[in-house]
UniProtKB/TrEMBL annotation:
Database matches in PANTHER family: BYPASS OF STOP CODON PROTEIN 6, INNER MEMBRANE PROTEIN YBJJ
InterPro entries for this protein: MFS (IPR011701), MFS_trans_sf (IPR036259), MFS_Transporter (IPR051788)
Record's protein name: MFS transporter
Entry keywords, A to Z: Membrane, Transmembrane, Transmembrane helix
Listed transmembrane segments: 31-50, 62-81, 87-108, 120-140, 152-172, 269-290, 296-320, 332-353
CDD domains membership: MFS_MosC_like (cd17393)
Keyword 4Fe-4S: no
Membrane topology: Multi-pass membrane protein
Signal sequence bounds: none
Location in or out of the cell: Membrane
Organism name: Streptomyces yatensis
Length: 400
């Protein structure tokens, strides 16, 4: 599973860090570019919703095994075309399949954590961060040596696709029907459909809403760092152009470090304490960035942001699995949509506030949203105190 998270992190980083090169290759105007960038998370949300229904008929591991190579090939297609419609088609495929990939990957991670009986989700997301660092580093090499996108992407895709397919042989849910006959498999498939329908019905959006908000707030914070850290350091804190590229790399490294040790914190202190500490640390990080007198203090703030934000998303997926133990696939698919909601809101929100007001004040908005997470920290308890209106217990569906 960790290999799949790593591959996904690398592929996504190779796309987003080479957007300027894609823009130049296809001659896309600055006015049209935001439409292409917005289409990917919107379609990813559609893919996540579709995965909720798809896993009623096939295992999440099989979904992941199918879509991960398609995502990689879509990246290569995006970098290899010659006309705008080819880029649009490649990004559409990328968006739809990356939503299915994110959903199925986290479904497997949640189910595996439940099987282990201890926190391991932060480790999986740490592998994603490591993949992101590797992908961003390779993208830097490509930009430094002025490599054409097909030359950069082709050997990587040729390597990563077989690696992901080989790793998928060890997905846990592949063992469920290893010795079943075709007839028995058909019968079980029909019964799984009925159970899956029950699972979807068991997911109350009212009970899931606090986790959805935490997911959205975390990605608003993350997209703020991804899209505005370089501009903020250069334009507001008056750093050099070279130094302005450092905060995002520092953020990614501290995200990896936080996720590498975060599971130990969850096992020692509990998910609620870790989420509260992470939200508080991220809030302090945004405050330091907003008040920084110079670039080095600003980078200190971005460092705190990486250490704080990194725990929120993995623990939110894990909490959804605990809240709906008999319907975790449906809960994860729905929760995953708010990943893209936060991504879509975060960058335009900070940009609009920065342009209309100032960028220091704009940083206080994601700070406030992240701090709101503290209010919802009780939703991360190992055994939910209540369900829906605070009086029901979550209904557990027997999955055999």
């Amino acid at each position: 599973m960790a290999i799949s998270f790593f591959v996904q992190g690398a592929i996504f980083a190779l796309l987003v860090t080479r957007i300027p090169a894609l823009q130049d290759r296809y001659g896309i105007s600055d006015g049209l570019l935001p439409l292409f960038l917005a289409a990917v998370p919107i379609l990813a949300g559609v893919g996540s919703v579709g995965t909720e229904h798809l896993v009623k008929r096939m295992r999440p591991g099989l979904v992941l095994r199918m879509v991960q190579p398609i995502v990689s090939v879509a990246l290569l297609a995006a970098g290899s075309g010659t006309t705008v419609w080819q880029l649009a088609a490649a990004l559409a495929v990328f968006g739809l399949t990356v939503g299915a990939l994110d959903a199925s990957m986290n479904m497997l991670g949640v189910s595996l954590q439940r099987a282990y009986g201890r926190s391991i989700m932060l480790g999986f997301h740490g592998a994603y961060s490591l993949g992101g660092i590797a992908g961003a580093s390779l993208a830097w090499v490509g930009a430094h040596w002025d490599l054409p996108l097909p030359t950069l992407y082709a050997p990587l895709v040729a390597t990563l696709v077989p690696v992901a397919l080989i790793a998928s042989r060890w997905y846990v849910d592949r063992q469920a029907d290893h010795h079943m006959s075709h007839e028995a498999d058909h019968h079980v498939g029909h019964e799984a459909d009925h159970r899956a329908d029950d699972h979807a019905a068991a997911v109350s959006m009212r009970a899931l809403l606090p986790l959805c908000l935490v997911m959205a707030f975390a990605y608003i914070g993350d997209s703020t760092v991804s899209n505005w850290s370089a501009k903020y350091l250069e334009d507001v804190l008056h750093s050099s152009e070279q130094l302005a590229t450092v905060p995002y790399n520092v953020y990614m490294v501290t995200t990896l470090l936080g996720r590498s040790f975060g599971d130990f914190g969850v096992r020692r202190f509990g998910a609620v304490a870790v989420v509260r500490a992470g939200a508080l640390l991220a809030g302090v990080g945004f405050a330091v960035v907003a008040a920084a007198p110079g670039p080095w203090v600003g980078m200190g703030g971005f460092t705190l942001l990486g250490l704080g934000l990194c725990v929120l998303v993995p623990q939110t997926f894990a909490a959804a699995g605990r809240l709906f133990p008999g319907a975790s696939d449906a809960a994860v698919a729905r929760l995953n949509i708010f990943n893209y909601v936060g991504f879509l809101i975060g960058s335009p929100l900070v940009g609009a506030l920065g342009g209309a007001w100032n960028y220091r004040a704009a940083m206080l908005v994601p700070m406030a949203l992240v701090l709101v997470t503290i209010r919802y920290a009780r939703s991360f308890t190992p055994v939910p105190a209540g369900y829906g209106d605070g009086h029901e217990r979550p209904r557990t569906v027997d999955v055999g």
